[in-house]
Amino acid sequence: MSGTTTAAAALRRRAAGAGANRWVVLVVLCVSLLLVAVDATVLHVAVPAVTEDLRPGGIELLWIVDVYPLVCASLLILFGTLGDRIGRRRVLLLGYTLFGVASGLAALADSAQVLIVARALLGVGGAMIMPATLSILRQVFPDRRERALAIGIWSAVAAVGAAVGPLLGGFLLEHFWWGSVFLVNIPLMLVSLPVGRVLLPESKGDGKGPWDVVGALMAAAGLFGVVLGVKRLGSGESVGSLLTVLPLVVGAALLAGFVRRQRRRTYPLVDLKMFGRPAFSTSVGCIVLAMLALVGLELIAAQYLQLVLGLSPLETGLRLLPLTFAAMAAGLAGARMLRRFGPRRMVCAGFCLTAFAVVLLMALGRTDECALMVSGFVLLGFGLETTLFGAYESMLSEAPQEQAGGAAAIGETSYQLGAGIGIALLGTVMNAAYAPGLSGVPGVPASASASAGHSLGEAYEVAAQLGGSAGAALRHAARDAFVHGLHVTLLVSAGLLLLGAVMALRLPRVMQCESSEPVELPAPRDAAESRVSV
């Protein structure tokens, strides 16, 4: 009898330790996410210094900036499903290691080619880390109410990382050389590796059937082609360009073949039946639409602040901070809102609030309306994060636990594709509305007007070359045309956001909190026994 009592007491103590550990696990996962999110944006402010030191060509510079998100987006499904197969913690710790090594290589790069390779390796590491954090979170928090709070904290950290990247990069560049923006990752990874090895639980899927290596490679190559084509469209390349069309066509064909292959396999790499669940497929669509609006608007807003209002890059970053702070607040309040309103009303209201903010920002003109801008950015950040939170939580809760890695990879891939499509689509709308405003400017030759129609920055360069009254007239017309294009783009964005609100009506009305047994994590005193070789 006494032995049974002692065993029960030991079990209770172990369960209590596990309950305490899962929040420590969340901290470790959030640090991982912060590093990946910061690294996605930290290089932007360092581009001039990199250009001056390494002297890359135009194509090389483009690859230095774009290869990280391109590789990361392409490999998310591969590593997400690999984690389901061999262990999510194992893939995460391998990602930590590769991320640290690649950061050192990037910091010490003495040529553009070495930096491109290092950035590609960082993308591989990021693709290992991102889906693993969400899938481990899905396992560690089986109770949906606690999981909603954890996802809210996770998403708030993602918002912080995106904002901190340029600010951290600017600070480091003022005191050190450009390689320091990468070197800062190494001490954090040196801490994360042993801590993650001790605290993070290992988990796998059901392990049935062989891992579909061919399917994983088809998904990676297909996503690489599609994302590359979309990025080229977003950078202003012609739709008819062979280097744009070929990656899109080949990538789409490979993805179509991947889908066909998965439907035929007894043990598919990604269970496409998940898309038959309205909550899952709707959540993925909502993520794409939300990111489509966010990234495109942020890009155009940055141009407006710098080129129309004449703010410095640091001032531009500070003006965008209210959007980040509002997103953080929405992430932290998301769990409570989800319990009270349910996924359908929460995501729908988030889209509507964002659409209202976008319409409000249409009042911006050539003068600096700071109060209006801050109000619009606060509503925009809160609405978009509310939408993303509700969509991510619904998507992750709808997926079976054994498919958590694949589901997380699908969510992150949707995030990346939405961002790329947003830049391409809204950039195209912007250019279509902007260019006609520069035709027929008095005193400006047709060739100069055509060159100025490519972008506002190029219009300013042409105006400086013309000088005199013609240059002043071109500069004035270009600024007015850009503001007009901004208004048209905002209107299109509002329409897409309202489309997202309609789509969100397919989500469940209430938050179904399934009862689950608590996941037993390694208690601190037993941590050594639970380690799995990486």
Automatic annotation (TrEMBL):
Principal place of residence: membrane
GO biological process: response to antibiotic
Domain Major facilitator superfamily (MFS) profile, first and last residues per copy: 25-512
Sequence intervals crossing the membrane: 23-49, 61-79, 91-109, 115-137, 149-169, 175-199, 211-230, 242-259, 280-305, 317-335, 347-365, 371-392, 413-434, 481-505
Subcellular location: Cell membrane
GO molecular function annotation: transmembrane transporter activity
A cellular-component GO term for this protein: plasma membrane
Keywords per UniProt: Antibiotic resistance, Cell membrane, Membrane, Transmembrane, Transmembrane helix, Transport
CDD domains: MFS_MMR_MDR_like
Membrane topology, record value: Multi-pass membrane protein
Protein name from the UniProt record: Transporter
